[in-house]
Amino acid sequence: MAIRVLLVDDQPLLRTGFRMILEAEQDVAVVGEAGDGLQALDQVRALQPDVVLMDIRMPRMDGVEATRQITGPERDGPAKVLVLTTFDLDEYVVEALRAGASGFLLKDAPAHELVQAIRVVASGEAMLAPSVTRRLLDKYAEHLPSGEEPVPDTLHTLTDREVEVLKLVARGLSNAEIAADLFVSETTVKTHVGHVLNKLGLRDRVQAAVYAYESGLVRPGASGQ
Questions:
Q1: Which of 3, 13, 22, 80 is most exposed, with the fewest beta carbons within 10 Å of its own?
Q2: Of all helices (H) and strands (E), which one includes residue 63?
Q3: Number of domains comprising the chain
Q4: CA atoms within 13 A on the CB side of 119
Q5: Beta carbons of 208 and 173 less than 8 angstroms apart
Q6: Domain boundary among 136, 163, 192
Q7: Which residues are 105's β-sheet partners?
Q8: What is the CB neighbour count within 10 angstroms for residue 194?
């Protein structure tokens, strides 16, 4: 089954470019387009895409609010949202991740990265470019805890190994990279990540990364995280 993709961007030329890239792939099918957030909501309900490629800054309804409604508790389908941004230090990206996006990608990313990001998000994983993620969190460090606040009670439900895994997820490492770092199998890492999400009541790795920073478990800019 091909991955069903909805393109959401207020610039028709960009949508055309993305469509050309994606339609060259046998496992990806572009099922529709939208020029703003409101159109995106209608298209998601009508077309039931697997992945929504979402611009952030659009008229009528921006990508953050559209993402919140698409991925929220009242959502109409299983769509995952992959946010597109022109700037790698866009404050709206953090808001989109909090709203429920499964990851983000720069609009000028190479074609193969765009395709791979869609495959990763469709499979249920998060698309977090580690370097960009760290720069984003570092930039907005003043909005995050200093690390001196009390640790949330929910964090105490995790085992020591699960805390280790959460810290590495927050750094943007993939399952394979975490496995190599901890000298365990990828299957073991997936199990740990699943336990972390279940115990903390989080939807995916993106929420886990945000939680790790907001709880003070990981401090922006700190080395040896």
A1: 13
A2: helix 63-71
A3: 2
A4: 11
A5: no
A6: 136
A7: 84
A8: 11
Tell me how far apart the alpha carbons of residues 24 and 205 are, in angstroms, rounded to a whole number.
Answer: 29
**pLDDT tens-digit series, residues 139-172:** 555 555 444 555 567 888 999 999 999 999 887 7
Q: What's the residue count for the chain?
A: 225
74 and 169: one domain? no
Closest CA to 22 of 87, 145, 115: 115
Burial 106-122 (b: 16+ CB within 10 A, else e): beeeeeeebbebbbbbb
CA dist 76 and 18 (Å) reads: 25
Residues 6+ apart with CB under 8 A from 66: 8, 37, 38, 40, 41, 54, 58
177: which residues sit within 8 A by CB, 6+ positions away? 168
Mean pLDDT, the chain, whole residue set: 82
Give the type of residue at 86. T
In a domain, 57, yes or no: yes
- Note the Cα 224 to chain centre separation in Å: 23
